[in-house]
Amino acid sequence: MLKVDKEKDAENILREEMLQERAAVLGRAGEKLNIALEKMTMIEHRIEDQLQHFSYLQKKCRDARNSGEFVSLRRKIVQEINGEIGQYNHAREYAKLRYYYLIVTREAMGMRRHHWVEEIYKIPPRKKYLRDV
């Protein structure tokens, strides 16, 4: 009887270790996705700051809008903002990949319902590049 209890304890210990490992794997997948989404948010804030600065410059320089200096400055700012938008869209693709990995990991563990994952880890749409008008 004592031998059966030891085997059962060993089985329970092994089962517990497997559950802990599954939880750790899911946690890492979720954390990597969360980090990717946070990076997108940081880039988005930089884009918003640059757009506000650009809007301010346009209002301030209404009279000089067609001057060569303003046109050159506007073109430079639009290029910088578009560079950030490119980084954002690249980060978005990476976040989509991390989301896919999370779903695949969940599926491999037998989890089939992912509706809450979609709600928690919403991936925003791509940003469109600015046109220099």
How would you summarize what this structure contains?
By secondary structure, the protein is an all-alpha fold. It has a domain of 93 residues. It has 3 helices and no strands.
Q: Describe the largest sheet.
A: none
The tally of beta strands, per DSSP, is 0
Question: What Rg, in angstroms, do the CA atoms define?
Answer: 25 Å
What is the percent of helical residues? over 70%
Average pLDDT number: 89
Question: What is the end-to-end distance?
Answer: 85 Å
Number of DSSP helices? 3
- Low-confidence parts: none
Strand content: under 5%
Shape: rod-shaped
What's the SSE pattern?
HHH
> SS-based structural class?
mainly alpha
Describe the protein in words.
The chain has 3 helices and no strands. It is 80% helix and 0% strand. It has a domain at 28-120. By secondary structure, it is mainly α. The chain has helices spanning 2-60, 68-108, 115-120. The longest helix has 59 residues, at 2-60. The model has no long low-confidence stretch (mean pLDDT 89). The protein starts with a helix and ends in a 13-residue tail after the last helix.
